[in-house]
Design brief:
Layout: H1 32-42, H2 46-53, E1 54-55, E2 59-60, E3 71-73, E4 78-80, H3 88-92, H4 105-121
Antiparallel strand pairs: 1-2, 3-4
Helix pairs in contact: 1-2
The protein binds iron/sulfur cluster (SF4) (2 copies).
Length: 122
């Protein structure tokens, strides 16, 4: 089986969540609806949500390693800390298309061996 024959969405189960990092060439944009959803989630005003979470006009602040400030990272997992209130772009990505990050050989090389190993035992 080649990597192109796999259901690309299956990769999310193995991927360290590149889409939750600010990588070169990618930006997570939030609109007013996204900010309001987050504000309601934290029971704060939209203005307060902007102050706390938004950098510039419309993107999330990130940590020094480039990860979204809402990404929860454990030893063996990473997950969204605001899953129910995550922005539209996070909900829809990768839009039923092959994930664009998986065309990046440097990133793909990190996860494809895990996919193949799992398929081999199932
Ligand atoms: S959408 Fe792409 S980058 Fe995000 S977790 Fe899935 S495979 Fe990884
Ligand atoms: S809001 Fe959640 S899904 Fe979206 S980038 Fe941040 S951690 Fe990832």
């Amino acid at each position: 089986m080649t990597e192109m024959e796999l259901d690309y969405r299956a990769y999310c189960n193995y991927c360290p969540g590149f889409c939750c990092y600010r990588l070169e060439g990618s930006t997570l944009y939030l609109d007013a609806v996204d900010i309001n959803r987050l504000a309601r989630h934290f029971n704060i005003s939209d203005g307060e949500a902007r102050r706390r979470f938004i950098e510039g006009r419309n993107t999330f602040k990130v940590r020094s390693d480039g990860s979204c400030i809402f990404l929860l990272k454990g030893k063996s997992y990473q997950r969204c800390g605001v899953h129910a209130a995550r922005p539209r772009q996070c909900r829809e990505f990768p839009y039923d298309q092959p994930c664009p990050y998986l065309h990046r050989q440097d990133l793909l090389a990190k996860i494809f061996p895990k996919v193949k190993a799992d398929l081999a035992v199932n």
